[in-house]
Amino acid sequence: MHYQTRQTCQTELPSDEAFEAEQPGHKRFRDLADALKEAERRANAVQFPQPLLNFLYMKTRRTSLSQAEWERHVRVATAFDENLTRFGSAPLLKQIADQLAVPPRDALAAELTFAPTLALTYHGGYSVLLRRLFGRFHPDGVAIGAVGKYAARDGAFALFAAREALLEAKPALVAPDGRFGKEALAISVLGAQVPVTDGAPFLAHATGCNVVWLALIWKTHGFTVEAIAGPRRDAGEPFADYRGRLYQFYADRLEQAFTGDPLNLPLTKNWKFIFSAMLDGKVHRFRRPTR
């Protein structure tokens, strides 16, 4: 049996009400403990290519864990992410928002409070839940995702909206590892080549905004937000130079995520393809056109 995460257009629902959309035959989780308990129960059904797990375990910084323990944590995290993404509820979202040790509003303001901030995240580590929380805490911000008001497939419109938000000192959220848009270059993450676009560096370079890495982190007491300041554009800095610095920062944060706590390593389809292609001596360059 193969269990796959399905963070697709049908599951990236931004509103609290969307959490209540009916999916016959599936329980709606209203409590984190229930969602985690169910993930632990069916974690053994979560399967990945063994060469992929072997590779990531060799890279982990959690060397105190045996490979069996590490793999178990990855499977639990993936099932937990699935439960929160596909089978959550408005009360569950409210519970998570209320319990966050550092809510996204504070995290986004943690580095330089009075400047606009571009938050960089990635397609992993409870990313759909993070976008929903971002929308809850920042209803006037712009979160670019696969679907929604600022859909990545509407490339120019989404970028323009994010640029305008930043110029108005409102936050924006983007995941540069997405598959929409024209490839500008590839960054190296644990040896895998990851195609990226000019979108995120354009926003930061054009507006001179703050940049922060933003990730949702599961700990024993619940979720917290990891916010790490990224590079700002220097005065007169050419775009190509800044793009290189920004994406080096982004690649470094991705490597930290993939080598850290496996309970924060739900392996999504995008990254399974990226690392599996690398192990086969290839580059996963699939792109989706924008409108």
Can you give a write-up of this model?
Helices cover 41% and strands 13% of the residues. It is of the alpha/beta class. It has one domain (27-279). The protein is globular and about 55 Å long.
Keywords:
291 residues; alpha/beta; 5-stranded mixed sheet; two-stranded antiparallel sheet; 10 helices; 7 strands; disordered N terminus
User: Average pLDDT across residues?
Assistant: 86
Question: What's the main sheet like?
Answer: 5 strands, mixed
Q: Poorly predicted ranges (pLDDT <50, ≥5 residues)? A: 1-23
Q: What overall form do the CA principal axes indicate?
A: globular
Nutshell version of this structure?
This protein is an alpha/beta fold. It is built from 10 helices and 7 strands.
Element layout with pairings:
Blueprint: H1 32-41, H2 50-59, H3 67-86, H4 90-99, H5 104-108, E1 117-120, H6 127-137, E2 142-143, H7 155-167, E3 172-174, E4 185-189, E5 192-196, H8 199-207, E6 210-219, E7 222-229, H9 239-258, H10 269-279
Parallel strand pairs: 1-3, 1-6, 2-3
Antiparallel strand pairs: 4-5, 6-7
